[in-house]
Amino acid sequence: MSDKPHQNLAIIGHVDHGKSTLVGRLLYETGSVPEHVIEQHREEAEEKGKGGFEFAYVMDNLAEERERGVTIDIAHQEFDTDEYYFTIVDCPGHRDFVKNMITGASQADNAVLVVAADDGVAPQTREHVFLARTLGINELIIGVNKMDLVDYEESKYEEVKSEVQDLLNQVRFNADDAKYIPISAFEGDNIADESENTDWYDGEILLEALNSLPESEPPTDAPLRLPIQDVYTISGIGTVPVGRIETGVLNTGDNVSFQPSDVGGEVKTVEMHHEEVPKAEPGDNVGFNVRGIGKDDIRRGDVCGPADDPPTVAETFQAQVVVMQHPSVITAGYTPVFHAHTAQVACTIESIDQKIDPSSGEVAEENPDFIKSGDAAVVTVRPQKPLSIEPSGEIPELGSFAIRDMGQTIAAGKVLSVTER
Amino acid sequence: MGDVAAKIKVMPNGPEVDLDELQELLEDSLPQGAKIRGFERDDVAFGLVALLPTVIVPDDAGGTEAVEEAFSGVEGVESVSVENVGRL
């Protein structure tokens, strides 16, 4: 399986629109359901005197398997198609997990948005699409699910498709590239085989659409950005910063700069999995050692980059945010904690520049007095301590953040532009 | 809403920390409702080894914050970060 290129695939959509069923169906159709689950079913079916394979049964048992954590790396489910090896990122429903999605290691490259044909665009559909946009999802495949519940009616499919198109336009997702497929995850329509129930549809089925996703390129061409997680003093070596490379390449001998601490030097050695390596790339967890850097010179939240193209330090930045949950309203002067890469910095929302109307995507109000839960807005932010952050248009991996206050994730956003310090 | 599995990366505060002992201390520190479903270890660099417990928390419990805070308070822990999360 591992000789194929890898893709992280997020399954997003409103609760009860069929995300889990779709995951189960994908595993089933690609032969990724553990053999003993199928075997167990076969035995039980024979005992009861009925043959055949019931998908619902597999679904139940998969859930049970995962609860017990027996067979599968429990945070991840995997399957492969002709072209790719997929890891499914099945997003938790609770909003407080959004922080993990932004600062975590396995960012999804592409996503399948599940929308139930009998329900259409629902609140979480909207929220997930915005988050997908913020998290840097490239391509979106829209599965108009539960077609069996609307008698496979083309008009119903078209209705939901146009609702989703409106939504994508609102958040400025490239709506032209998005693919729409009428499916039933439960019945298996248009997942692995063309369905006879949807004669009116002649586009790609889901597995075809997954196969034709563009290959995701690791961001090696971008300048080096390595957020520092921890700084150690190792006897015999000296100061060792540790972190995961987000973009670019770290080579021995590189002249690097740490921002916002604003110190730098030459990289002497790089280690990964306890072995010395001449270079390291995006996704690699490394420890390294830099000539002339002491333990107190750098700290968690610093970003390491090339000395001649150092990480950007923001005096202020403008960002697009969506407010997910806030007990009252957010006004200028509000100072919650921003979580971006390994940094956690209190930042003041200096001004609320525009409120975006969620139903039209247009600017609803210039310089509104406040924003509240469900609102999308453009805001200007002033970090209370130096913060290294990048415009998401230039380095998306360093351009998104979660906003937390009162023990909750209240908003997520991405950086539009940075005014450098 | 079901449960969520989170793979959490715990960095010890030096290469000399006893990881078996640290593993036990992490188990003991868990907030109510959360449980650990196994540990992995990852060699990082210069003798540093990360512990990667997979922690199960209810989806409606509001994220991994309580677990992260509990782990951060354990002696011998340098930092705690969530590697990835997924629904069970």
UniProtKB/TrEMBL annotation, chain A:
InterPro entries: EFTu-like_2, G_TR_CS, GTP-eEF1A_C, P-loop_NTPase, Small_GTP-bd, T_Tr_GTP-bd_dom, TRAFAC_GTPase_members, Transl_B-barrel_sf. One of its GO terms (cellular component) is cytoplasm. It is found in: Cytoplasm. Residues 4-220 form the Tr-type G domain. One of its GO terms (molecular function) is GTP binding. Signal peptide: none annotated. It comes from the Archaea. Belongs to the TRAFAC class translation factor GTPase superfamily. Classic translation factor GTPase family. EF-Tu/EF-1A subfamily. PANTHER family: TRANSLATION FACTOR. This is Elongation factor 1-alpha. It comes from Halopenitus persicus. The lineage of its organism: Archaea, Methanobacteriati, Methanobacteriota, Stenosarchaea group, Halobacteria.
UniProtKB/TrEMBL annotation, chain B:
GO terms for molecular function: translation elongation factor activity. Keywords: Elongation factor, Protein biosynthesis. Residues 3-88 form the Translation elongation factor EF1B beta/delta subunit guanine nucleotide exchange domain. Pfam families: EF1_GNE (PF00736). NCBIfam families: aEF-1_beta (TIGR00489), PRK00435.1 (NF001670). Belongs to the EF-1-beta/EF-1-delta family. This is Elongation factor 1-beta. It comes from Halopenitus persicus.
